Amino acid sequence: MIIDTLENASNYFNINPCFKGAFEFIKGHSDLEKAAAGPVGTFENLTAFVATFQSVSKETGLSKFECHDKNIDIQYCIKGKENFGWKPRQKCVIPNGDYNPEKDVRFFSDTPDLFFELAKGQFVIFFPEDVHAPMIGAGEIKKLVIKIKI
Prior knowledge:
Elements: E1 2-5, H1 19-27, E2 38-43, E3 46-54, H2 58-62, E4 66-67, E5 71-79, E6 81-88, E7 106-107, E8 114-119, E9 122-126, E10 130-136, E11 140-149
Antiparallel strand pairs: 1-9, 2-3, 3-11, 4-7, 5-9, 5-11, 6-8, 6-10
């Protein structure tokens, strides 16, 4: 997992060949606050969509303690403050259902090792080894999610 601000995004371009395009996409869309929820682009193994939602309690958020096998997530905070739970996948031992290959998601019932908050202009990169519980907080949150196929 990587947490940082958009200003430092170039530090991560060499980790994955798609990261440069993903962050250039974010920087090139200064109107994201006005963007409607839904898909905003597909290019170079990347799918980008805007999500707007009312945040949920920690307990509700933990019911979606998830990870992905075939995608890296870049989640960029456009508006609001979003809290996440996180734990390394190798420490998760309580599966919550079967892997869904269509949605590339698997859930766990484990307790996160830590919680952190993203505010406007910050991003988090979740790799397949990062189990995360999104959408926790108070109030409306708007974010851009970029899925990178691996």
